[in-house]
Amino acid sequence: MVVADVDETPIEGERPADLVERLALAKAHAVGSMVSYRAVVIGADTIVELDGHILGKPIDAAHAGSMLADLAGQTHRVLTGIAVVASDPTQGHPTTITTFVTITEVDVAPLTVGEIDRYIATGEPLDKAGSYGIQGRAGAFVTAIRGSYHSVVGLPVAQLADVLNSM
Which of 14, 20, 113, 153 could in theory staple to 81 by disulfide, Cβ–Cβ 3.0 to 4.6 A? Predict the structure, then answer.
């Protein structure tokens, strides 16, 4: 895995789905430009959106607590953008094959301040969009999902497999 150095700042007025698709494509093109061999490069970006507001990664524990308190007892959306590009150094810049966005609705149980504080103390939420990882301890907070579990984790495996199989 190669991490792309891409500015993830939303453009003013940019819709969440447009943001994750743009960032996934920027990441795939950035990495595709670095490889010195023919390759298929996959870029991905995931965000959490609650009532039209994008919840990125928390800046500190207090910010994580605030985000988790906002998510508690609510339904939010997790959007993952995927971009697949072909990289061939003899052709110059990478060529976009396809992009897509998956959207999954996630229901979170009501949480007490104590539950939030104990979860933050694990350190797990500090590098995750929306301050939680469904695949970790916060999975116990999730009461239902509608859509792709793998998309919430960060890579919609089934949808990506369909794209790759059709190539």
Answer: 20
Read off the amino acid at residue 26: A
Average confidence (pLDDT) over 77-85: 96
pLDDT at residue 4 above 90?
A: no
Question: Among the CATH numbers 3.90.950.10, 3.30.9.30, 2.30.40.10, 3.40.50.2300, which is that of 16-165?
Answer: 3.90.950.10
Exactly one of 7, 18, 45, 51 is catalytic; name it.
45
| Domain range list for the chain | 16-165
Is 45 known to be catalytic? yes
**Is the full-model pTM beyond 0.85?**
yes
